[in-house]
Amino acid sequence: MCMNINWYPGHMKKTKELIRDNLRLVDVVLELLDARIPISSKNPDIDGIIGNKPKVIILNKSDLCDPKILRQWIDYFAMQGTEAIPINSISGEGMNNLIDAVKNSAKDKIEAMRNKGRKIRPIRVMIVGIPNVGKSSLINKLAGKKTAKTGNKPGVTKGKQWIRLRKDLELFDTPGILWPKIQDENVGLNLGFTGAIKDEILDRDELCVKLIEKISFKYPDNLKERYKIDKLDEDPVINMESIGKKRGCMRSGGIIDYSKVSRIVLDEFRKGILGRITLEEPGDL
């Protein structure tokens, strides 16, 4: 599967400039990653853009990932000198820990203002991340009300906006931003699996085959249990066909409806119906 993806809409280029132009206004950068693919969902351009600005990593969708590997990722980022906070932006789990981490990261700035006799203003944060990683849901949960437009398609949040989350916290929101060319096939696949790249620009059937292949290797029992398959085959296409037969995804003449199988498997993985699955580990680096 050719994954040399060149998908860089105009608003993403503008977002990169937006981050650069407004970085000086913020105290802490919040980098939002998908806990199932922390490296693949990390835009490699971000660190270069934000430089030495204090940063907190947020591992969103922690409810969908393998808890044992999540702990490994938290330790990994700690070794890199950055605190990583697991959250569920839908339920709100982890929000208090996130607020504490933001306050801790901004304490030097606040103390400097206090020493100068200046009025203590709200902490200003900027949230950055790739499309479809849950930024809008996170903002709404932090604010306690619906303040940002949300959607399940990459790139739904556009433009810029300052949002008063609480009396002590203001947020500069930015749209999701990918990097100009995704050349690593594994990264491209992971982004496709989680929906960070629009399905319309990928071969969804082939993407599904690759996902089945990966889950068969890492979490075979999840597939067997969900789709009532006694034994997985070494060939992921045969496993895809087995799923199709079990789910009645058949056309006339006994032909497998691969498109229907693809929709089912990708949707059930993305929603966590296939179980708590993490697709990459620190040991893979």
UniProtKB/TrEMBL annotation:
PROSITE patterns: G_CP. One of its GO terms (molecular function) is RNA binding. The keyword Nuclease does not apply. GO terms for biological process: translation. Keywords: Cytoplasm, GTP-binding, Hydrolase, Nucleotide-binding, RNA-binding. GTP binds at N60, K61, S62, D63, N88, S89, N132, V133, G134, K135, S136, S137, G176. The keyword RNA-binding applies. Residues 15-180 form the CP-type G domain. It holds the Pfam family MMR_HSR1. One of its GO terms (cellular component) is cytoplasm. Its main location: cytoplasm. It is found in: Cytoplasm. PANTHER family: MITOCHONDRIAL RIBOSOME-ASSOCIATED GTPASE 1 (PTHR45782:SF4). Required for a late step of 50S ribosomal subunit assembly. Has GTPase activity. Belongs to the TRAFAC class YlqF/YawG GTPase family. MTG1 subfamily. NCBIfam families: GTPase_YlqF. This is Ribosome biogenesis GTPase A. It comes from Maledivibacter halophilus.
